Structures are given as C-alpha cells and as structure tokens.
C-alpha cells in the first residue's frame, strides 16, 4: 500500500504539472513478431503508419526510438480466435495533431486500397492483393479520459492502438487512488480537424504501452510486479488491470477476455519485448523467457 501511496503523491505533486513523457521508465525499444508473411504486415506498419523500412522485416520509427522486427516463418499460423498473448501494441503520438495526422494517413491508405479494388476487374483480379483491399482494418475508436485512441488490426490479427495522451494535469484519480479511465465516444471529427499533414508516426512517437491477454489477473499482477517492477494504477475495469512504472496511467494492460485459450506452438504474433534498460527495482536478471502472456522480455 505504501508504494501505491507514493505513486499517488508522485502523481499529485509532480505529474500533474508535467508531461507524461517526463516519467522515468524504461522505453519499449524493440518488438519481435513471428509471422507467416511480411508484406501484408508492411501494408500497415510501413505504408499506412509510415515507419521506415531499414530492410525487409525491420521497421524503425522516424527518430529511431523504437523498431519492429518480423521473423518470417511460413509455417506459423494466424489464429482466428482470441488467445493468450498480445491484445495490442499502442503507439503513442506526441500530440493530438500528430495522432490526427497519422489517422489521416491510415484513412488515405484504406481509401487507396479500396479504389484499387474497385478498379480491378472482378474476373481474374479477385485473388490479387490489389483486389483484396487493405491488409488491415480499423476496429474502433474510443476516448479513455486520459487519452484518445483508435484501434486497428493487422493482417495476422495483431492489435494496434494509435493514441495521444491528454495532459496529465487532466487525469483524475478516484477515492481509491485509481487513475480514472473509461471507454466513451471519441470526437473523431474534432480530432481529425487538428491534422495539418498526413505524416504518419512522427519523430517523438513511442510505444506507449502494451496490452496482453492473460489467463488470470492476480497471477499476472504478481508476476509483473515481482519481475518487472510494475505497479497497479487501475484495478476497477471489468476483466482488466493496468500497471505502470512511475506515475503513468499504464505501460502494461492485462485482461482475461481470452480466458485461458492458448495459441498453438509457433503461432504468429508478438514473441519478445526489448526494453531500453532494466526495469526499476527488478532483480539483476537480464530478462524473462516467458511471461503470463507467453511473451519474452529482455533489456
Ligand atoms: Fe491500450
């Protein structure tokens, strides 16, 4: 309880007057995925989101703050049912206008693919990639009080969130110290009106948080607290729990919405997370082979 009180004090005394980016916490530097094919994923991460292709299978952000690496294993399977593992990776844009600019680029990519499909004669074109539309889809949008977010899903079924934080001075805590988060309607028109470009994920962006499906919340909370030094910031959301380093609203979300359905060995998806430095307060080990979501961590 002492730790939670300290977090609350930190939030009250420091965070409310500063930006979330000033919180001292490890950065998510590299995410490694297993996939049966790279190009369908590149249609989202490279073409629609604007990450730079260093080489096929390796994409990097504009200021090299993070990278995504795709290990192509043609035999790996795409699961159609939600399973324990990644729920979504959340890319944090540095401002509301930057989020809007990225969304405009995504919408333009969807429109372009849709137009190509419309122009492709049905006979002989139905099976071509141009005729099958974009290799990703927009899944939803929400205002979470602390942030505004749009959700997508890539060709392998991996979730992607694009979001921008509200200023931490606007974050609220309930009587128990939980940071208030909810899911309410996003003002999409108001958001898009702030865009001045279609730049995509720009310099200053980061991987703000990860969200995993786990079999059990209490087990997961204990694991991430003991092994990664993460502390709970929100435990009242149905079926989910949120944890963070420092006073951020969350660096990690976990939920039990996949129950305990396990993906088969070798399935496509996120397999490893690399941090910029050891998590605060953790033992001296160099990483974790597998966490409650079946994902490895190193630093
Ligand atoms: Fe999220």
What labels would you give this structure?
299 residues; alpha+beta; 2,3-Dihydroxybiphenyl 1,2-Dioxygenase, domain 1; eight-stranded mixed β-sheet; seven-stranded mixed β-sheet; 6 helices; 22% helix; 28% strand; globular; disordered N terminus; binds fe (ii) ion
Provide structural commentary:
This protein has 299 residues and is an alpha+beta fold. It has a single domain, classed as 2,3-Dihydroxybiphenyl 1,2-Dioxygenase, domain 1 (Roll), CATH 3.10.180.10. The protein is built from 6 helices and 15 strands. It has an 8-stranded mixed beta sheet, covered by helices on one side. A 7-stranded mixed beta sheet has the order 2-3-4-1-13-15-14, with no helix packed on it. The model is unreliable at 1-23 and 123-131 (pLDDT under 50). The structure holds fe (ii) ion.
**Mean pLDDT over all positions:** 87
Number of strands: 15
* Reported CATH architecture: Roll
Bound molecules: fe (ii) ion
Q: Please state the structural category.
A: alpha+beta
How many helical elements?
6
Helix content estimate: 10-25%
- Measured between the Cα atoms of the first and last residue, the distance is 28 Å
Q: Looking at this structure, what is the CATH superfamily?
A: 2,3-Dihydroxybiphenyl 1,2-Dioxygenase, domain 1
In terms of DSSP E residues, the strand content is: 25-35%
Tell me the overall shape: globular
Counting structural domains, the number is 1
Assembly state (oligomeric): single chain
Low-pLDDT segments, ≥5 res: 1-23, 123-131
What is the CATH topology descriptor?
2,3-Dihydroxybiphenyl 1,2-Dioxygenase, domain 1
């Amino acid at each position: 309880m002492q730790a939670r009180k300290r977090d609350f004090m930190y939030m009250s005394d420091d965070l409310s007057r500063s930006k979330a980016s000033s919180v001292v916490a490890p950065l998510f530097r590299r995410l490694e995925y297993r996939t049966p094919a790279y190009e369908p994923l590149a249609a989202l991460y490279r073409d629609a989101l604007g990450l730079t292709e260093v080489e096929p299978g390796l994409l990097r952000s504009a200021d090299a703050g993070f990278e995504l690496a795709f290990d192509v294993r043609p035999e790996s399977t795409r699961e159609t049912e939600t399973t324990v593992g990644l729920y979504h990776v959340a890319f944090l844009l540095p401002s509301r206008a930057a989020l809007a600019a990225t969304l405009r680029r995504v919408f333009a990519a969807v429109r372009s693919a849709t137009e190509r499909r419309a122009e492709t004669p049905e006979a002989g074109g139905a099976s071509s990639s141009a005729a099958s539309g974009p290799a990703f889809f927009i899944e939803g949008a929400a205002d979470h009080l602390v942030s505004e977010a749009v959700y997508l899903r890539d060709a392998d079924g991996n979730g992607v969130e694009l979001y921008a934080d509200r200023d931490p001075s606007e974050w609220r805590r309930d009587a128990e110290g939980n940071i208030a988060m909810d899911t309410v309607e996003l003002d999409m028109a108001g958001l898009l009106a702030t865009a001045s470009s279609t730049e995509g994920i720009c310099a200053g962006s980061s991987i703000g948080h990860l969200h995993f499906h786990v079999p059990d919340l209490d087990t997961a909370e204990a694991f991430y607290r003991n092994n990664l030094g993460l502390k709970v910031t929100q435990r009242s959301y149905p079926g989910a729990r949120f944890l963070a380093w420092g006073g951020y609203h969350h660096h990690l979300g976990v939920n039990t919405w996949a129950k305990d359905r396990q993906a088969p060995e070798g399935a496509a998806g996120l397999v490893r997370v690399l941090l910029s430095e050891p998590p605060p307060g953790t033992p001296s080990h160099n990483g974790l082979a597998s966490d409650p979501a079946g994902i490895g961590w190193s630093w």
